[in-house]
Amino acid sequence: MPAPPQAAGHATAPVVARDAAPAFSPLYQQIKVLLTHSLQGGEWRPGELIPSELELAARFKVSQGTVRKAIDALADDRLLVRRQGKGTFVATHAEREVRFRFLRLVPDNGKSGGMARRFIDCRRQRAPADVARALALRAGDPTLQVRRVLSFEGRPVVLDDIWLPGHAFKGLTAERLSEYRGPMYRLFETEFGVRMIRADEKLRAVGADAESAALLEVEPGAPLLSVERLSFTYGDRPLELRRGLYDTSAHYYRNELS
Amino acid sequence: MPAPPQAAGHATAPVVARDAAPAFSPLYQQIKVLLTHSLQGGEWRPGELIPSELELAARFKVSQGTVRKAIDALADDRLLVRRQGKGTFVATHAEREVRFRFLRLVPDNGKSGGMARRFIDCRRQRAPADVARALALRAGDPTLQVRRVLSFEGRPVVLDDIWLPGHAFKGLTAERLSEYRGPMYRLFETEFGVRMIRADEKLRAVGADAESAALLEVEPGAPLLSVERLSFTYGDRPLELRRGLYDTSAHYYRNELS
DNA sequence: GAGTGGTCTAGACCACTGA
DNA sequence: CAGTGGTCTAGACCACTCG
């Protein structure tokens, strides 16, 4: 179905534009794009097994090594997961190992007890200008606004304000959210076909306002870690804006630099 | 000079332990270890060109492809930098593109004007217990303690307290630091042969104490972003503990999740 | 043009999984 | 055992840099 890309390397034709712009793109990157389209189009869904390297090589009329390089790149991007002896699977937020993979909060005293969620609010609302800008919507477009608190060992630690584009999350309600067990991003995958693949965060220290202080059970003005996260699906399309306030008196935000 | 690793794959001998523990390690990872040792031992210094893939393949008696995979891994770890047509170089904190690569602070209004440094203090001091633990020293071991302020557009934004193991940084003085132009980690490389390759950070929101408030020109109690960074050289040896306080009223800490 | 890294292929064998 | 990904090799050609 996808147009087989032109051969290259071994003994054949020019790869791409020969005249104006060089714009050289290696074969394995073209394969990567084709695979991404299949993921985006839902040919293989989160958690599913994709065809073997040899099958894909036959489909795209390239060698196994070339397919392998494309899959390697997608695995690096965390879109695919390789399992030796079993095959290659579409990554998902449902796997035990990666649940809450975007949550970088770590308790000071090593072990993390259970996490509890409480949904405070969930309503449809017109997008304020700043939210609209972040989500690439028009101001006033319908959005879904969710407010919730995460607690660890019975103490509230995170207050999240979440904005979602209304069109992509039709039918999402407070009940749906509160009765769902498991990570939010997993619900997005299974119920709305929305898969978050990466996110940008902006961190600052702020003082707690009265409302946040009450919800997090801290003094007004107490220092809180503000975490503004913008999450993206395929094609770098932003699909969630999340403004979090973290009480870091017994937890810290972990980051690794390299 | 290094013992050539055993062959594998094509048509030859068992690779490694056959009896008790499987402990299988692919050839290219063994090559990676050998290359790391050469880096660590100073055979090739930061910024220098390492031998070509073909030369290394000959030295280690493996194919070019295997050396390539090892170098790819080291390039992913940011220990090496590949430049097509030129060769492969030892990564350094001196390169224009990666200067201050560990500093994630971004000004709200896009463009970053100049950065100014002011060294407030630099003294030899016995390691407090917590610092010693982080740096894998014994409490009371000699350390160097540096305090400095970073300013952007004339306004103080970052207050850093830096601890360095005394033995690795003999001869580092306040003058040396203040007269040096360029990133600190570059000075560490050129003057002390210490190359930082990765770091862990712990972030929290805290209230400014009197001293910090004065130095950062904020109100006492104002929310500040606390960034505790532990930096590592080769072999995961910690060689710097840095406690930073960031005024995030006009800057934010940027992070990318994937 | 020589030398470097980058891509592509083809084929062999190894390690792991599950029926 | 067959089938999957993982490693290794050998050789060809492409893209880039620099003298």
Total count of strands of chain A: 10
DSSP helical segment count of chain A: 7
The rounded Rg of chain A comes to 22 Å
Q: Please write the CATH class name of the largest domain in chain A.
A: Alpha Beta
Any idea of the CATH topology of the largest domain in chain A?
Answer: Chorismate lyase
Shape designation of chain A: globular
Using brief descriptors, characterize the structure shown.
six-stranded antiparallel beta sheet; homodimer; globular; 7 helices; Chorismate lyase; disordered N terminus; DNA-binding; 2 domains; 258 residues; Arc Repressor Mutant, subunit A
Summarize the structure.
By secondary structure, the first copy, chain A, is an alpha+beta fold. Chain A has helices at 27-40, 53-60, 64-76, 129-134, 174-179, 184-192, 210-216, and strands at residues 80-83, 87-90, 105-107, 115-126, 142-152, 155-165, 198-207, 223-233, 237-246, 251-257.
